[in-house]
Specification:
mainly alpha; about 70% helix
């Protein structure tokens, strides 16, 4: 056993030592990475995007297969529209608050004291007014199933019809009578 440790010690003595300074960087490595190589973080999805990204076709297909009544389809479409309208109302409230807050700074005194900041606030205020107009229009269109929600409503109805057709094929057309 003593011979093994001495042979290991002899091998370690014959292995050349690497200069540690070769592997050490004196600068912070973040300076070596360009800003273009850093991954760009995506903005978090909003509530409207969450609603629009739901699987309405799958929901409709499931409902059509389970419920298979057209009156229930219209009721579910109304529920979808009400969810969108609720999001539109919340967004409108938020925009109204921001417009009111910015309105406090749109004064001649503020413009005279800080013209550049006044212009920035005024531009943002105008943008919010346009967004408010667009959301109000979308809120009116949501009642009829049009606008932002149109795609979701169409997918839901198509899925409902497909689910209802599957139900009819399975239960009605291919159902074997008991007397055979």
């Amino acid at each position: 056993m003593v011979e093994q440790t001495t042979s290991t010690d002899q091998m370690m003595a014959t292995v050349p030592q690497v200069d540690r300074s070769i592997f050490l960087e004196e600068r912070d490595p973040s300076f070596l990475i360009s800003s273009q190589e850093t991954p760009i973080k995506k903005a978090p999805k909003g509530i409207l995007e969450d609603l629009k990204s739901e699987d309405y076709y799958g929901m409709g297909k499931r409902d059509g297969y389970d419920d298979h009544e057209l009156t229930l389809m219209e009721m579910h479409v109304d529920i979808i529209a009400s969810r969108f309208k609720e999001v539109f109302h919340k967004a409108l409230e938020d925009i109204e608050e921001r417009i009111a807050m910015m309105g406090m700074y749109l004064t001649p005194e503020f413009e005279a004291a800080m013209p550049e900041q006044h212009e920035l606030v005024h531009t943002k205020h105008d943008l919010l007014v346009k967004q408010r107009r667009e959301l109000s229009l979308q809120l009116d269109l949501a009642v009829t199933g049009e606008g932002y929600i149109e795609k979701s409503v169409r997918y839901y109805k198509a899925g409902f019809r497909k689910g209802m057709a599957l139900h009819l094929e399975e239960k009605v057309l291919f159902h074997k009578p008991k007397f055979q």
